[in-house]
Amino acid sequence: MATVTELLEPVELDLETLLSDLRSLIGAGHPILQAAAEHLFSAGGKRLRPGIVLLISRALSQGGDLSPRHRRLAEITEMIHTASLVHDDVVDEAATRRGVETVHSRFNHRVAVLAGDFLFAQASWHLANLDNLDVVKLLSRVIMDLADGEVKQGLYRYDSGQSFENYLEKSYCKTASLIANSAQAAGVLSNQSEDRLQLLHHFGRQLGLAFQVVDDILDFTGSEKQLGKPAANDLASGYLTAPVLFALQEHPSLAVLIERELTSADDLEQALQLVRGSDAIPRSRELAERFARESREALTWLPDSSYKRALVDLPDFVLGRLC
What is the CATH code for 4-320? Predict the structure, then answer.
């Protein structure tokens, strides 16, 4: 199974350029905000989202060349993603991310919120300067979706009656929207037909959903080291994911524990046993496999290249995190 670094190898140099360009794009603003942004971009991370934009852009180009506007789109994608992580960490009160102190841990909550806002504002400014209304609409939608997903997640905490559709909608907003809309935007900048733009969106949507479902499975099966947070953290926080929703169909008694917000001594352990002792994990895995397959199928029309091969391998990489 290839690693992310291996998959993104065809655009490795582009990603290096992207990082140095991001640092200069942030500009000489407020020193603390600049320090916070620097801290974020030097914290590592897979750069998967801008990598996807770069791979699609090169796969669609006649000679595999990359226009300045495609490069800027990849930078904007990473800015939006990073801004959303800062705000997520504040909401979740996470102390570290990728083994590095979160912005609010290193500075404070106020600086973290402002740094996230600063990055969203920077992304919006550079987006407007692309002078392409369709791309502006696509990426502005992402910023709306991210906020919408965060609100939805908060509203449905410990709600055992929520529908599977709600879960998928929230997952799309929080995880898949950025991949889907930035993939489509790369197609817009490459003057692709409407049919192909929809396929690029579908590729990103299904890949993002597969990624989220895999994440949700790992919350029950992964180690703390693998997850970077305590196992069953989502359930303990009242966020009901695919495995929990499937387990609820099999064990209605799980609803009682959830509705009382897992407050009794053994509630969380009991809930974990009900999820792990049901068909919930295999059913969630099947769902992730379906999303991965549909994501792969959406790219059959792309001409063969190292960029296309990397994109087609991405869904398998996402599923490979379960091994």
Answer: 1.10.600.10
